[in-house]
Amino acid sequence: MDRSFTRRDFIRTGGGVIAAASLGVVEGVGRRAAMADVQTVPAKKRSIRKAIKLGMVAGELTLLEKFTLVKDLGFDGIEPDSPNNLDPDELITARDATGLVIHGVVDSVHWRDTLSHPDSEVRARGLRGLETALRDAQLYGASTVLLVPAVVNEHVSYADAYTRSQAEIRKILPLAEELGIKIAIENVWNNFLLSPLEAARYVDELESPNVGWYFDVGNIVNYGWPEQWVRILGKRILKLDIKEFSRSKRNDEGLWKGFSVELLEGDCNWPEVMKALDEIGYDGWATAEVGGGGAERLADIAERMDRIFAL
User: Fold this and answer.
1) Which H or E element spans position 237?
2) Which residues pair with 51 in a beta bridge?
3) pTM confidence score
4) pLDDT 10s digits, 121-176
5) What is the CATH number of the domain that holds 87?
6) CA of 296: how far to CAs of 40, 160, 226, 292, 299, in Å?
7) Measured distance CA(208)–CA(140) in Å, rounded
8) Other CB atoms closer than 10 Å to residue 223's CB: what's the count?
């Protein structure tokens, strides 16, 4: 099987630690070609830090190779899932060798073992998964765990989702506070917290500085305007997910096709979003959550994110 990179593409230092990577040729594009557009982007006006989800990095690479590639392409951080099957020592070694920050962790069981489920055993499994994610976040040096708090459907009423999920989150807040990790609730298509006013209220009712919002810009475009959410959520926003959405593709090709558009080519009004973020004084992490790939693809994502942040 062909590989975009191999260990032979990486330069080992005298101490045996891989310190740099030659991008080589990935999908027919060398390092200079992959980075050319990035170098032409104007300097960012803001201190927003650019990150990527670990799962977006394609190829049969070691964690160290993935971290090196992501760092070399200009990203500041990365975000893995948890619970996971990763070797924590390998992950931390990759972090320390590259200087790439593991800024957050995404709860990997919150869709399956929902905190709103009618079965208390399922909710308990979800809570154990969240506990693992919190402990992993502390181990990795991260500051947040992204959480989908509930799912509303024909078997789970809106009211039950609200009360059950808050009750479960309250159970784990003492641990989050002890570990110094914040639970960042994300807006997703879970039929829940569909208004920014309600989203703000949900967080406020938990009465903890260790709960906030992981605001996904693209997820809102289907039924609202991200800049309005930003202004209402304000300082509750801990971090951002960056993706795009096209209402015309949704209308012409189907709901989920709305995401099949590149950053800056959909219906997200990025100048207004950035203006709103400036108004609330946001200067934290922004993580791409789009289709990933090799060096050429990731370089394009980095360049588009830089253009957004410079608006």
Assistant:
1) strand 237-242
2) 77, 287
3) 0.86
4) 999 999 999 999 999 999 999 999 999 999 999 999 999 999 999 999 999 999 99
5) 3.20.20.150
6) 16, 46, 29, 10, 5
7) 23
8) 9
Confidence of residue 45 (pLDDT cuts 50, 70, 90): low
Decide: helix, strand or coil at residue 49: strand
Under 8 Å between Cβ of 15 and 23: no
**Separation between Cα atoms, residue 71 and residue 68, nearest integer Å:** 5
| Counted domains in the chain | 1
Query: What DSSP designation does 40 have?
Result: T
d(CA 51, CA 292): 13
Domain span at residue 155?
A: 7-309
Residue 191 belongs to some domain of the structure: yes
Average pLDDT over residues 252-267: 97
Task: Tell me if 1 is assigned to some domain.
Answer: no
CA–CA gap between residue 244 and residue 269 (Å, rounded): 10
The encoded tokens of residue 103 equal 């800024």
Residue 51 lies in a domain: yes
- How far apart (Å, rounded) are the C-alpha atoms in residues 294 and 298? 6
3-state secondary structure of 79: strand
Q: What is the dihedral of CA 128, 205, 157, 251, to 10 degrees?
A: -100
Residue 38 inside a domain? The answer is yes
Distance CA(111)–CA(95), nearest Å, equals 28
What is the dihedral angle through the alpha carbons of 273, 276, 280, 286, rounded to the nearest 10 degrees?
10
In sequence order, the 6+-apart residues with CB closer than 8 A to the CB of 260 are 246, 249, 253
Angle at 310 between CA 305 and CA 311, to 5 degrees: 105
